[in-house]
Design brief:
Spore Coat Polysaccharide Biosynthesis Protein SpsA, Chain A, 213 residues
Length: 213
């Protein structure tokens, strides 16, 4: 199968500078530790992308390219994010990817450790039958959006970083007459509680007294 048949994955990321990433988590556990967690989350997310999919790192700030390449390596494409709020940056990144020939686009961040290979492939399979696929986040946002073509209205005038992002986006999809599908809800890691919940679900249980030695 040719590369053109696969979606292009756009990872919207920040340079891992202490005090600028995972700031809510950093205020609770310390900014160096939060930066370490951020690095691990991003590396986990990129490792989950199917190997046949082209990947672009859309990074901020725009002077971070050398830093990002040194961290993540040469196997990805690198594009600076444009100025503006998240909506403006998403509009630009998606439109630019389609303009450069992407047959479909899947946009992710680096915050959702449960967005694994199977979930990404499921989103791609759903996109064959609908206009938009979303991955609901448990905090009311979304972990993933997949599109066949630029849809700038899906990113304009959205109350980013609130609990109504998904709700507002779904209403916008309806207004635009688009079809959609959802993958399973997942947790973004934004603070200590969400990190603890994820670790509690994924860490092996401690052995009971009868199991231990």
């Amino acid at each position: 199968m040719h590369a053109e048949s696969f979606p292009r994955l756009l990872a919207m990321l920040k340079a891992p500078r202490v005090g600028t990433v995972k700031t809510r988590l950093g205020a609770q556990i310390g900014f160096p530790e939060a930066t370490r967690v951020y690095r691990q989350l991003v590396e986990r997310q990129l490792a989950a992308v199917p190997r046949t999919w082209p990947v672009e790192i859309h990074f901020a700030p725009d002077d971070g390219e050398v830093e990002m390449r040194n961290w993540l390596g040469p196997s990805y494409g690198y594009q600076p994010q444009c100025p503006g709020d998240l909506g403006q940056r998403l509009i630009h990144a998606v439109a630019d990817a389609f303009m450069r020939g992407a047959p479909a686009v899947i946009v992710v961040g680096g915050d959702c450790p449960e967005l694994d290979t199977a979930a990404l492939q499921h989103a791609h399979s759903l996109l064959r039958t609908v206009d938009v696929v979303l991955g609901p986040a448990l905090d009311g946002g979304y972990t993933l959006i997949a599109l066949h073509r630029p849809e700038p209205r899906l990113f304009a005038d959205i109350p980013w970083s609130t609990s109504t992002v998904l709700e507002t986006t779904l209403a916008r999809i309806t207004e635009l007459g688009l079809t959609h599908a959802l993958i399973a809800p997942m947790e973004d890691i934004d603070d200590r509680d969400s990190l603890r919940r994820f670790l509690a679900r994924t860490s092996p249980p401690a052995p009971s007294p009868t199991q231990a030695g």
